[in-house]
Every structure is written in structure tokens, then in C-alpha cells.
Amino acid sequence: MKTSIVVVVLLLSATVAGFYWLPQGDLVISPSDPFSSQPDDYRGPIAATPMHARIHQSATFRGASPDGRLQVLNGALLINRDLKRWMDFYLSSVGEFSIEEITEFMEAEMRTLPAPADQQALDLLNKYLAYLDDISRYDEVSGRKINGADLAGLTARMEWLEDLRRVYFAEATIAAFFGDDEALDRYSLERMHLAQSGDTEAMQQLEKELPLHLRVAREKARAIETSQSLRESIDDPEALWQARKEQFGEAAADRLAILDAERQQWQIRLADYRAFLERNADRENIEALAEAYRIENFSSLEQKRLDAALQANSDL
Question: In UniProt terms, what function does this protein have (predicted)?
Fold first, then answer.
């Protein structure tokens, strides 16, 4: 289970315990973007501890800012997609850390919330861990992750997931955590079914029935994918600009060209920094030299990205 939970989290993020069935209490449910309205009461991360330092200096999180956050409103836990992202963010480090260590860390942060939000958060974390464990065991036994590519298998797994969520969570929590996922799952399966029958008119109508924010997100994803494909297939900057202009319009083509130039400059500066580190690797004061170089050549925001960017480039 220790290994399987992180696998489930990574698979569900589009994601230890036995069964916990606890009342929801006075939870505040908010499926909307938490940044659109500021909670009355928010507690940040706990003060630095050895475990806190180990986690945030680990290979998994080095150079990364926590995704999501814990929030309370009028003393009650605020349940929204941001809370789920927060839990998934830390659970993604299982493997580098044990599930016991990550759970202990998350529980410590949850205990800094005011009552009753602290206990509500702990109860919800227990349910979420048990929910992920059930998914991992179901997939391992049934082979759904490997053999579920057929429409019937995918449909069975989707229905099982929806039932499982309603065992562990209240409907409002399901809407906040999984509402978009379930809408997209149902859309995707119905689209596969219509594609098999060749009903293009029904497929177009199905697209229109998606919630507006999901249609916008799908259009953005398609645009990003198209832009990436164009950049990979066209080497000449002018030809690339023309292709983007035809696809997205002149203004968007100009913005993407500026972004390309910024990325190229970033890669050059990153290569210069790597070369500097390699030239001075044997010097006793390399850490002080590296820090001085970073301060002189990178903004404070860029400095947070450096370690992760160097690691990503070395993996290519």
C-alpha cells in the first residue's frame, strides 16, 4: 500500500488506514476557485522543523512551491479543489519518504488549524488515504489500469469510482474534489461510445453540453498541444510565426514568439550557470560563489527554479 498510494495519487491528479466513516460536521464546502474569495481565517505552514526541512529540501520538492493550501472559514475547514491539491502534492513524495512520515507531516500542519477545522481536516485526510488505498487494491486485483482500455472496462471502473466516493465522502465534498473529474469522465466515455457509432452530430452536441469552464479548459489544452506540435515541427522562426498566426491569430503569434525568446534566454543563462558550477566545483568556497552568482544573475523568483531546472535538464 505504501507504494501504491503514490501511484494512485499521480494517476488521479488529473489523483493507510482502514475504513473511516466520520460525520462531515460543520464543513464549509466550496467548489469554486479559492483565490476568488479570501477566507476569513487561514493558517500557514507550521514553523520549520527537521521533518519540514527534509521534505521541502528533498528531490521531489526542491525548488517547488506547495500546490494548494489549507484554509478555514469562520473556524470550519474550507473544502475545495485547493485542499485536494494540497494533499496530493505531499502524497506525491511517497517513495522518497514513507507514507507514515508524510502523513505525520500533514497531520502536524492540520493541527495548526483552529478548532473545529483541525479535527475536520484530520478526519478528511484519513478518509482520503483510505479511499486511495481502496483504489490501488482494486486496480491491482482487477488489472483495470492495464486492461481497462476497452469501453466496457473503463465504464465499469468509472462507475466503481463514483460509488466508492459516495461511501467515503458527502456529496458536497465529492462536488468540490471530484466534480470536474466525473463530468469529464462521463463526457469522455460517451464520446468514445458515439465515435464507435460514427454519430458526429451527437458528438458536437455533447461538447456543447459540457460546463463552460471545462470547455474553456479543453480548448486551452488543445491550443497548448497544437502550439507545442508546431514548435517541434517548424525550425524557422518566421515560418513558425506564420503557422501560429493562421492557427491562433496575429496577437497570439506575437505573444508566443516573445515566450520562445524568453525560454531560449533562460536556457542560455541556465547553461552558463551550470558551466560556472562545473568550473568551480573543486573550490572550497563553491557554495558562497554559487550563491553570489545566483544573486547577481537571477531574480529571487528565478532562484527558486534553479535546482529543479538543472535537475530537469540533466535528465534529458
Answer: May be involved in the folding of the extracellular lipase during its passage through the periplasm.
CA 303 distance to own-chain centroid? 22
Q: Which of 103, 126, 147 is the last residue of a domain?
A: 147
Question: What is the span of the domain harbouring residue 294?
Answer: 252-316
Instruction: Kindly state whether residue 316 falls inside one of the protein's structural domains.
Output: yes
- For residue 189, being part of any structural domain is answered with no
Q: Closest Cα partner for 14 from 161, 232, 171?
A: 161
- Cα dihedral across residues 105, 109, 112, 113: positive or negative: negative
- Whether 137 and 263 map to the same domain: the answer is no
Question: Total structural domains in the chain?
Answer: 2
Q: pLDDT tens digits for the chain (316 residues)?
A: 544 554 454 444 433 332 222 333 444 555 444 333 445 555 544 545 566 666 666 655 655 566 788 899 888 999 998 999 999 988 887 777 788 888 988 898 899 899 999 999 999 999 999 999 888 887 666 555 544 457 777 788 888 888 899 989 988 899 999 988 888 888 777 777 777 777 677 777 766 766 666 676 667 667 777 887 888 888 888 899 998 888 888 888 888 888 888 888 988 999 999 999 999 989 989 889 999 999 999 887 788 778 777 876 665 5
Q: Are 68 and 86 in contact (CB under 8 A)?
A: yes
Q: Where among 126, 147, 168 does a domain terminate? A: 147
Confirm whether 168 is domain-assigned.
no
Output the pTM of the full model: 0.57
